[in-house]
Design a protein that fits this description.
- It is a single chain.
- The chain starts with 8 loop residues before the first strand and ends with a helix.
- With 73 residues, it is an alpha+beta fold.
């Protein structure tokens, strides 16, 4: 599998409007990412590894969502 496999914490290289996110699926050069603000399909080349602060933000957000709604976020 290429860069940014399922479970990787990422951010977009060109904008911060997405917020940081977690890769939830792959399809060739595309990554399905659960960003803090929404879910989107993004080319792998347009993603970078999240900083430790960004990863912590996503982990906290996912924990809150899981506690509020249940399930595996």
């Amino acid at each position: 599998m290429g860069a940014h496999g399922v479970g990787a914490y990422v951010a977009h290289t060109g904008t911060d409007v997405y917020g940081p996110g977690k890769v939830i699926g792959t399809d060739g050069d595309w990554r399905r990412v659960r960003f803090v603000y929404f879910v989107a399909s993004v080319a792998a080349g347009d993603l970078r590894t999240a900083s430790p602060q960004e990863e912590a933000e996503v982990r906290a957000w996912l924990t809150r969502k899981s506690a509020r709604h249940g399930g595996n976020w």
